[in-house]
TrEMBL record:
UniProt cross-references to InterPro entries, sorted A to Z: DUF218 (IPR003848)
CDD domains registered for this protein in UniProt: YdcF-like
Taxonomic classification: Bacteria, Pseudomonadati, Pseudomonadota, Alphaproteobacteria, Acetobacterales
A Pfam family that the UniProt record links to this protein: DUF218
Name of the featured protein: DUF218 domain-containing protein
The DUF218 domain, residue ranges: 40-177
Organism: Asaia krungthepensis NRIC 0535
Amino acid sequence: MRFWLALPLMIFVLAIVWCAGFAWFCVDALQPPAHPVHCDGIVALTGGRDRIEASLSLLDKGVGDRLLISGVGPHATLSQLAEHAPVPLTPELAARITLGRRAVSTIGNGSETASWARENRIHSLLVVTAGYHIRRAMLELHRAAPGIILHPYPVRSPVLRRRPDRATVLLLFHEYMKWIGSNLGLSRGVNMAPRA
C-alpha cells in the first residue's frame, strides 16, 4: 500500500529530473568548442556539412596529423565533401584523409574509428560532430576504443543557429533520449554496412 501512495511522488521526482536533464542537454548542445589540443588524429562524424568543413580546417592547421571522415556514403568523393571547405584540398592534405564508408550509426562510427586508429597507431583523437551529438558520440567511441584519449570538438549545426522551433526541439528531444539510451546500454540498430 505504501508503494502505491509513494508512486505519484516518484513519478513527479523522475519527471523533474528528466526535465532538468533535458534543459542541461539543450544548453550543453549550444556550447562552443574549447581551444583544440593537438591530437594524433581527428575524426569527423558525418551528418552535417559543417562537421567536415571544421575537421578539414583543423587538419590544415595541424591540430591533428590524420583525419578520418566516418560514415561517408558509398558514392561520395573527397572532392565533393570538401567542396565548401574553408581551405583548399591540396594533394598533401588529401593524402592525410581517410573516408570511412562502413559506419551507418554512431555505434558504427565507434567501430570504424577504432579500426582506423589501430591501423594508424592513433593514441589521441579530436572528435568533431554536432553539439547535440557530441555526448553520445564520445560515449560510443570510448566504448569502442577505451585506450584512446578523446577530446570533444562540438560544432554548432545550422539548425541550432536559428531561432528555436518545433523541429529543433524535436531534434534535441530525440538526441537526448538516444543519449540516455546509450548511457543505459540500450543502443541498438545496424552499425556497419557489409564489406563490398
